[in-house]
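Explain this one:

_____
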Amino acid sequence: MVSVGTIVWLSSELMFFAALFAMYFSIRAADYGLWREHTPHLNVAYALPFTLVLVFSSVTCQFGVFAAERGDVFSLRRWFTITFFLGLIFLLGQANEYRTLVGEGIKINADGYGSMFYLTTGFHGLHVTGGLLAFIFYMIRTTMGRFTPAQATAAIVVSYYWHFVDIVWVALFCMIYLLR
């Protein structure tokens, strides 16, 4: 039931991000000149490695799930810890990119481009932060008593969320950085 509930909840999250995508394309269509002006400031070579780090974090997360299914708590914690740090690296990279772009005059309150860039990537960053908190709470939970099948199920649920966040980022990355 927990897995089904998580899938239903992630479906609502998908609708949230679909609305952000719709807003992005609507504002882009209304004033394409902003995109022509601002997209050259985006550094794809900078963003791509952080994207790959986040995608690789899904792999390490899944290795943690496999360990949880075997009841191997040590491996589970190791893989989830690696996943946590990869997610943190992604967030720090995003924060540094924000710093750079603000320095170049791309601000959330400057125009439609800045608003959409920061809203879409910022809400994604909040979701990554939520995933990192889920990893922390989950790993604390696995230290309390013996490892149970319910905890293995919780590892799967956390992985659903993390994979969802990664898939959304790949779509956002393609939309923002590659679609010129």
Observations:
- The helical segments are 2-30, 32-38, 44-70, 73-103, 112-141, 149-178.
- The chain has six helices and no strands.
- The mean pLDDT is 94.
